[in-house]
Amino acid sequence: MRFGLTEEQRLFDDSLRAFLADRVPIETLRQQAQTGRGFDPAIWQGLCELGLPGLLVPESYGGAGLGVLDAALSAEALGHAAAPIPFAASAVMAPLAFANSASRDQQSEFLPRIAAGEMRVGMAFAGIGGQTGDATLTLQGNRLSGRVQGALDAGEATHLLVYLPDGRAALVEAGANGVSAQVRRSVDRTRPVTDLSFENAESAVLDAANDRMAAALRVVDAGRVMLAADTLGAAQYMLDQAVAWAKERVQFGRVIGSFQGVKHTLAEIVTMLEPCRAFVWHAAYAQDALPDEARLFACQVKAHVGDVGREASRMATEVHGGMGFTDLLGLHYWFKRCTFDRQMLGGPQRCREEAARLQGWKLAG
Amino acid sequence: MDLTLSGKYEALQAEVRAFIREHGHKSPKVGGPRRDPDQKTRDWQKLLVEHGYAARTVPREYGGFGAQPDVLEAAVIADAFAEANVSQGLANQGISMLVPTLLEVGTEEQRRAYVGPTIRGDMFWCQGYSEPGSGSDLASVQTRAVLDGDEFVVNGQKIWTSSAHFADMMFLLCRTEPEMPKHAGLSYILLSMKTPGIEVRPLTTMTGRAEFNEVFFTDVRVPASQIVMSRGQGWHVANVTLKYERLYLGDANKMSVRLRKLVDLLQTTEIDGEKLMALPEYRDRLLRIQGEVMAWRAHQLRLRTEQADGVDSGVKRLIVKYGGTMLLWRMSALAVDAVGAAGLPYDPSETDDATAANLDYMFDIGMIIGGGSSNIQKNVIGERGLGLPREPKTQPAAAGGRA
């Protein structure tokens, strides 16, 4: 019984955070925000050297063979840096989709390329995983048609993986015949959303799971844990900045952090936020080791951390006063990170509905 | 991260569960009325001490079980009792606060005289800390103890004294050195509540029960040997005690027990003939609370591991009392809304679910305030946890100056 990180996990986290602190300064964020495609080749290259895309890929396919908990730690670090990089779909959900639903041949064809960082996968869901907007996907044999909005990590993806309402998944190449991807700058300029449409596009259908819907939901759940971890990191960054600001900014002849109004606001944030860290770890660990509880944890952690992220990001902005509202400090990049994470793959309301059904607190339908 | 129980912990879990299966029916009701414990409660306490499920780490020579401190063992035991909704024995200020204090800084005579009877439930303590003029600013207490020969003579008043109306003993924080700076002028004295000159007046709270008392001291004579540590060291001793109190408030197992009760309540209670669980507004509040409880439970697991590793958890521990008591209050607020108008008939001496919900709903506010009020907790979190500067000392207004 040990609820904490291993030495290896700490060391990896330290090196990832050091890399991000060095390579993702605010100037880089501002540059990236111009394009809003959520991809910086230099940063990506560095993260590939750290092994980030292959964290969850089995060692036999060239990855690190680690678990969802390891991925969650990285997601938190990326959220803390507001890193303009594909991760939740490309480095976590896609490898799990292959592990859960792909044939052996498909695994050996694609997983090594994901691990090497040469294949980046944007993902979208139709009818599951909290899909909003339009989604009309059909498969005839391996031919994919229809459209789906709001794909994650698809800004500079090499491949697109879409889930159908029945839990089957179809993989296409981004530039292939009959595939079109319209990248839309999102409210979070560090990560776009992409509208996909397909016209009789040739795909590799991932349909090797015994229970295809359960397999699909495991992928959604891992994604939800990643988005919660990302929010945790972003909100923690905002709290850190707000505390630093409160120790520095002087009004009425005192640093504002000595006023109880400000001090208590910051105390409220840390009281909400700090338990979220243990919750994210526990939820991620559940994906790796507690199958009976994994779905409940994923739904509840997404909902709870989403709510805490909303409050914490607003309150931390408030502590900065007018400066928090401007573009000058760039604090809004992290606020928008929380905003994005909250809605993607189902907001708190959607996730709590699923949690209710899981527990028999609500009849399906 | 490994949440499986291995080796001795798994064995301990099996042992505790077997004990509960065999003896659980003898347990008093969990969260029962806060009053003088009855024979059933005392018998249960003795059984637990005998098996090492209460006072587990108290040395055998003082009547305890003599186990080495082990955070995970304590957690395994607490979890097993909570999951079975069986009482884990008395959790009063004598056991939770005074006993560890005496074990840390008491004399051999004091430990021998008080630890055993206290953990067995034969001796009850109340805490003589707060005064009408000294609440959050505890170090400013004015109750005086003057040495006269080999006795202290105590005069003054305490307030918020839980259990004083039936307690056998009090641990008292009082001023013995009025000429010293406020923190250095205090002493910590143990006295019998039967000493002449003590008057206890029940203090009825918003719950309608007299959970607290006012205690008045008029020339109360206490042997000088009843001091813990020495004169002027009372503040140090009081802080040893408070350290144990903050561990005892804001417990996540209590949240889990309450959550199960809430689920049950929403599944069985009807409004206009519909189950509450079928109504989205109720269900949503329950789900939100479940998410919060899951977060605090995970946080508790993290703290346990850090404690076992000897790590100072810093701000992570400082948030527990404030965050935990606030969540418990939101839980009792949902229970009150679930019992609804049918729960309004209220007699605080009853113990049914509706009364318990309304009682908790009010009593939990006392928990938010007691043991360092929520606003003080937020100062502590901000200052000690986040390193924010203290409020500057206020200057007395100059004559003719603005207020």
Brief digest:
The complex is a heterodimer of chains A (365) and B (403). Chain A is α+β, with helices and mostly antiparallel strands and 365 residues long.
**Low-confidence runs of chain A (pLDDT<50, min 5 residues)?**
none
The tally of domains of chain B stands at 3
Spatial ordering of strands, largest sheet of chain A: 1-4-5-8
CATH class of the largest domain in chain A: Mainly Alpha
Strand order of the largest sheet of chain B: 1-4-5-8
Let me know the largest β-sheet of chain A.
4 strands, mixed
Order of helices and strands of chain A: HHHHHHEEEEEEEEHEEHHHHH
Oligomer: heterodimer
Count of helical stretches of chain A: 12
Number of domains of chain A: 3
End-to-end C-alpha gap of chain B:
57 Å
What spatial form of chain B do the alpha-carbon principal axes imply? globular
Q: Which pair of chains has the greatest number of interface residues, and how are they split between the two chains?
A: A-B, 48 and 52 residues
CATH topology call of the largest domain in chain B: Butyryl-CoA Dehydrogenase, subunit A, domain 3
Text of the CATH class of the largest domain in chain B:
Mainly Alpha
What does this structure look like?
The complex is a heterodimer of chains A (365) and B (403). With 365 residues, chain A is α+β, with helices and mostly antiparallel strands. Chain A folds into three domains: 7-116, Orthogonal Bundle (Butyryl-Coa Dehydrogenase, subunit A, domain 1), CATH 1.10.540.10; 121-206, Butyryl-CoA Dehydrogenase, subunit A, domain 2 (Beta Barrel), CATH 2.40.110.10; 212-358, Butyryl-CoA Dehydrogenase, subunit A, domain 3. Helices cover 55% and strands 15% of the residues of chain A. Chain A has helices at 7-23, 26-35, 41-50, 68-81, 88-101, 104-116, 212-248, 260-289, 291-319, 322-325, 332-343, 348-358; strands at residues 121-125, 135-140, 143-152, 159-163, 169-173, 179-184, 193-202, 204-206, 250-251, 254-255. Chain A has a four-stranded mixed beta sheet with strand order 1-4-5-8, with helices on one face. In chain A, strands 2-3-7-6 form a four-stranded antiparallel beta sheet, with helices on one face. In chain A, helix 9 (291-319) runs antiparallel to helix 11 (332-343) and helix 9 runs antiparallel to helix 12 (348-358). The model of chain A has no long low-confidence stretch (mean pLDDT 96). By secondary structure, chain B is an alpha+beta fold. Chain B has three domains: 7-91, no CATH class; 125-231, Butyryl-CoA Dehydrogenase, subunit A, domain 2 (Beta Barrel), CATH 2.40.110; 249-385, Up-down Bundle (Butyryl-CoA Dehydrogenase, subunit A, domain 3). Chain B has eleven helices and ten strands. Chain B has helices spanning 7-23, 39-51, 71-83, 93-105, 108-120, 234-248, 252-268, 280-308, 315-339, 353-369, 374-385; strands at residues 125-128, 144-148, 151-158, 169-175, 186-192, 198-203, 212-223, 227-228, 270-271, 274-275. Chain B has a four-stranded mixed beta sheet. In chain B, strands 2-3-7-6 form a four-stranded antiparallel beta sheet, with no helix packed on it. In chain B, strand 2 and strand 3 form a beta hairpin. In chain B, helix 8 runs antiparallel to helix 9 and helix 9 (315-339) runs antiparallel to helix 11. Chain B is globular, with a radius of gyration of 23 Å. Chains A and B meet through helix 7, strand 10, helix 8, helix 9 and helix 12 of A and helix 8, helix 9 and helix 11 of B.
